[in-house]
Amino acid sequence: MGRLAGKIAIVTGAASGIGAASARLFADEGAQVLAVDRPESGIATAHAGKTAIAPFAADITDDDAPRKIVEAALAKFGALDILFNNAGVSGRAFVEEMTDAEWDRVNGVNVRGMFRLCREAIPALKRRAKEKGRARIVNTASVMAFDTDYGLAAYCASKAGVGGLTRTLALELGKFNITANYVCPGAIYTGMTQTNFDKPEIREVWEKKAALRRLGQPIDIARGALLLASDEADFITGHELVVDGGLTLRT
Description:
The chain is 43% helix and 15% strand. It is of the alpha/beta class.
């Protein structure tokens, strides 16, 4: 029996990268998954042949997206055990050159979109926790939640915001047997980072920085999210799980 047998999950950003790997891993571990991503992302065909994964096209920043996403999960599967907020974007600009639009885009997806989906899902998670004894919120942050680099003001602020949001969710929802935790990926080879990491001179620098001497793969983060989503994490809440191959062991 899988570690998520009988569970129902929403995974955002599920057309590629960490989200796609997580949706597949959750399904392989017994969950039924609503896999959410933007209409133009290819979500309709990303999980073709996986009967436990139902694709749902939505931009989480749309005004009515949270309601539609949660309603879709409930209509399709009847309940909700796990909300994995993984959708995210990046951007790079020095603060003095950054436009309001660039700031708003990154924070709108990474923090505001996450907050609004959490808010919408909480009643369903409460019902499930009352019935089954537990429910889960897992959010994707980054090692940049507590670190930084040139041009990453918006991204770092948004990921620090994910940490603050998640800790507060954990505090507020603990009495309902709902845990909230966040995973902090390091240097991961995904569609968002591929352009840089396909350059040998960049890839080699980041591989050398990690204690394990390699870039992370989406499945590495998916396995961390699986732990936090599973029953094994019953007494873990309000905390970060750093999955970085030892990237942040040295400054």
